[in-house]
Amino acid sequence: MTQLQYKGTGSATGRTGSRYWRGKTAYLGVIPFLIVSGLFLLYPTWNVASGAFQDNYGKFSTDKLKEVFNSEIARKAFTNSLEISAKTALAGAILGALFAWALVNGKPGGYFYRVSVALSSVLAQFGGVMLTFAFLATFGFNGLIANIAVKYAPDTFLADASWLYGKFGISVLYTFFQIPLMVLVFLPTLENLKPQWREASDALGGKAYEYWLRIGIPILTPSFAGAALLLFVNSFSAYATAATLINLSDFLTPLQIATALTSETGGANPAEAKALSFYMVVVVVIAMTLYSLLRRRVSKWEQRR
Amino acid sequence: MKQSWKVRLWRWTIISVVGAYLLVPLYAMFDFSTKPFGFADKGRTFRAWQIIPSQPDLMAAISRSLITAGIVMALILFLIVPTAIWVHLKLPALRRPFELLCLLPLAIPAIVIVVGIAPLYRWISIHLTESPISLAGVYSMLILPYTYRSLSAALDAVDIHTLAEAARTLGANTSRVIFGIIMPTIKTGIVNGSFIAIALVLGEYTISNILNYKTFQVVIAQIGRTNGNVAVAVSLASILFVLVLLLAIPTKKRQGKVLDVDLA
Which CATH number fits domain A62-302: 3.40.1280.10, 3.40.50.620, 1.10.3720.10, 3.40.50.150? Predict the structure, then answer.
């Protein structure tokens, strides 16, 4: 409504000129931003979107998209990516939600709470080179836990660092940054749960598990699912961690894209990189659309306080 | 209400399990970075920490990354925030397209942006500059969704139309309205956005590595190949640095809005 009010008082500056031009010149204000975003955001987006439908010489063709779709290696990488993203999203969402619950049940605004939230914001951004180092220092050759395992439990998988470089290892690493992200995303939701609901349930004789089963979990499910989708996108897009941990160039789709783009043996293949990117974007767009639909459902109760 | 012992038991079980998952690797970093060199396996040494300042590549990369972060923050302050305010105030018709544009990076993983932007940066490095500072352009786009979210929340919370009207009636010009009146009232949103800018620029690896720019993370990865202890020490130091920075920022209203998605 405030916008309507403003329109009526637009001439407060006493600027001259017709009403028509006054309205139009306002558009000039967004030009600098349009130039920067055009160069660094719209151009690359367009480049990938249009490039996916071209061959290496710039002619229109869907050959690359088909070729990638039918390629055994690309499919394997894609399913690996999907599988790892789904698993780490679920694991991160569950552990993160539990941790958020533990925080909400503590002293709000207390020292532990503050440090946990701050640490979560740092660790959620922690993917990449540093995360790889942290896990190599923990489970890698001569790492903290690995050394303990070698001494006391030489038969377990922990004693041999090679597990770190497979699907399971990558998943353990990814979950590390998924948990804090979930804490950050889910904490506001849990804080907005009305205590009255719990009191009403208690007053009517409901047990704790009945409250969670019949009220808590059904209410939280949409926002939990939405957060899990965010986490899915988060690990689906992740490149740095995997790139610094393993050199297997076609293990995950992001790694395969990087190889297609930079291959030093002269095999650089930008068209393939664009086709692969196109499929990635399709997955992300689907996930984000679902996310925004879920958010809309959630915001009905969450935003009213 | 006093908590039952069941709740407390669950609480502490969860905190210790998840806490161990998150903290053991951090402690392992400390342990690894203070291991004695060579084959001795007893004792501790802080040599890896002490020789951090004498790594010329690293120091150059840190200062370059900090300059880049500064430029990204300047772009936020003088380009993105004013444009957001301008759109809110004057161009309600553009609000929806502007929002979509700001949220676009969420749909495009960093690795895909690299694919699209590689030709542009090839041109920049040939014709303009080879310095990694030019990455500020693409970084400022990567953080758009976060900047936009904290900004639009802040802009919705205050009635900027009334503020702008009042300021104009009292004779302020447009830039005074934006920089002198509205921006101070949405300070928290801007501070949040700027913090994310620092975290993003210091942590970015995907784009700079593929485009061959020697940023902070790329150099750490390089050092890690030859001198693990030092690389681990630097990593841990930078995590602690960011943590202290975060704890120093006033916490009111901040939690929950800081980050929604990671960009790694």
Answer: 1.10.3720.10
